[in-house]
Design a protein that fits this description.
The protein is mainly alpha-helical and 96 residues long. The protein is 53% helix and 9% strand.
Length: 96
């Protein structure tokens, strides 16, 4: 009998550990690719990053930055909201 501290089975922990090191998570998207994928303009993406509200950037050269897929996923998780809160915000947008 094994003790499960995290509540995950041994197989689930192994899968989770493997997922953290998947090569796709370390792929770097250009700012343009990231904005297109998220569905907003380049200027909106730059505004989010300048305000400190965007994902962590990766410096590719002295003048070029990108966004690693894993940082994008972390950013998206941090922006998740509960369903009742999201529904209320959507109603507010409809009234505008």
């Amino acid at each position: 009998m094994s003790i499960q501290i995290t509540g995950l089975s041994k197989a689930e922990r192994k899968l989770e550990r493997g997922a953290r090191y998947h090569p796709e998570l370390f792929r770097v998207l250009s700012l343009e690719e990231w904005c297109t994928e998220k569905g907003f303009s380049l200027s909106t993406g730059k505004r989010l990053i300048a305000a400190g509200e965007g994902p962590t950037l990766t410096r590719l050269s002295t003048r070029r930055f990108g966004i690693q897929r894993r940082h994008d996923l972390e950013w998206m998780r941090a922006r998740e909201v509960a369903a009742p809160l999201a529904a209320r915000d959507l109603q507010d947008e409809d009234q505008s």
